[in-house]
Amino acid sequence: MNLRNLYFTLFLFFSPLLISAQVGHHGQCGTLPNPSETQRLLKNKEFATQFSTNRDVTSYIPLKMHLIANSEGEGRIDHQDVFDAICKLNEEFEALDIQFYLHSDFNNIDNDDLYNLNYPNIPDTVNEAYVSNSVIDAINIFIGNSLSSGNSGFYSPTYDIIYMNQSFVNGEDVILTHELGHYFSIHHTFYGWENTIYDPTEPTPLYIFYGGGFKEVEFVDRATNCETSGDFLCGTPADYILNWHLGCDYTGGAVDPDSVLIDPDEHNHMAYYSFENCLDYQFTDDQEAVIFADYMNRPEIYNVPAPDINSVEETANLLSPIGQEFVESYNVVHFEWEAVPNASFYLIQIARTVASFSIIHEQAFVSSTNYTSTALDANRYYDWRISAFNKSDFCTIEYSEEGLFSTGDELTNTHNIDSSKNFSILSNLISNELFLEFETPTKTDATVFISSINGQFIQENNWLVKGGLNKKTVNIATLSKGIYFCSVKTANGVFTKRFIKI
Question: Where are the beta strands (DSSP E) in 174-314?
Answer without folding.
Answer: 207-210, 213-216
